[in-house]
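quick one before i forget lol
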Amino acid sequence: MSASPLTVRRLDSAAPGFDGELAALIAFDAAQDPAVDAVVAKIVADVRLRGDAALLDYTAQFDRLQAPSVAALEIAAGELQAAFAALPADERDALQAAAARIKSFHERQKMASWAYRDETGCELGQQVTALDRVGIYVPGGKAAYPSSVLMNAIPAHVAGVAEIIMVVPTPDGVRNSLVLAAAHVAGVSRVFTIGGAQAVAALAYGTATIPAVDKICGPGNAYVAAAKRRVFGAVGIDMVAGVSEVLIIADSTAHPDWVAMDLFAQAEHDELAQAILLSPDAALCDAVAASAQRQIAAMPRQAIIAAALARRGALVKVRDLAEACALANRIAPEHLELAVADPEALLPMIRHAGAIFMGHHASEALGDYCAGPNHVLPTGRTARFSSPLGAYDFQKRSSVLRVSPAGARALGPLAVTLARGEGLAAHAQSALFRLQANE
């Protein structure tokens, strides 16, 4: 196979105009495509109105899959178990080992209820409860993602969600055994072979066959993302995922072949994926560029890698590692690798990143599949204000107030004063009744 020619821009943070070049590189228009939005609006409204009938029509149209009923599109639990049992031993073992590590990590994230008593005798606290039912969207078609099943379903299961509904498109009726096996391992309750905006709408509003959920999680194409935006409010969503990103900070101790392959690993996702290297060592940047040219020929997805690196990739010479960390905070990447001799020294300087990979042996691939932390991460600079998916995303908090008569006497005058200041007489009187009862 002949290698696609690699063109990766080279930048220098000390050069005039660098700030503008970096801004252009990391800019990504996440605005909704009006044409996509119009199609999605029609599909969502149709599914909300016609339910199962609309689902069958769209499944036939988009997935070329005819079914007499939506019930016929559900995969029985026995088939999930059979898919798992039929896997080669190494795949079964890998799924189970990854699931165990993911579960162990997310067990530590569970929020707890708590309470305390204040000086007035009031008992104040928080009660934590799990969501009742969640939906997880698993992409199908061009690729299969059993890892997405594990990363979305296991945290929900750990949080105590009672029912997990999975939807996965199966174009032409082709079912991926590894995805079905992952659903079995992760404890998914029900699986339907539907996809696209119509699946999101069905999960959000429910149909005669598919129950409405409280939150929808999982990645998808532009139509799935647009549908999640549209149904948000009727249900919760995890995030609207953008294209994937990696930023590598490397010093002279980094292995050029490892760094180049880590850039490839991100770039092979999509032609719009972003892969950037920041290094104060010009010789390392040269060595990584040479390694990339040498290794591209062996990559099955070399055309996608080449397109991504040409469009949104860069090798950036920085003044020092401190500047690299400052730029990392500006970029706020989905994945950040600290491929340096002393990653612990840099960690306190990092404020914005979805996941941080410490040291030369912490490849992003381990995080994607089996290390334990979640691979559903904020993209498009949203790591500035959001976090990875976790068990906490499937729990909610209720405030709990137990007010004693003494507490009502102590707090009532404050409430009356503030309520009157806001012109809310009923609020003031509500507090006054309790005061008068205690006189």
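fyi The first helix runs from residue 18 to 26.
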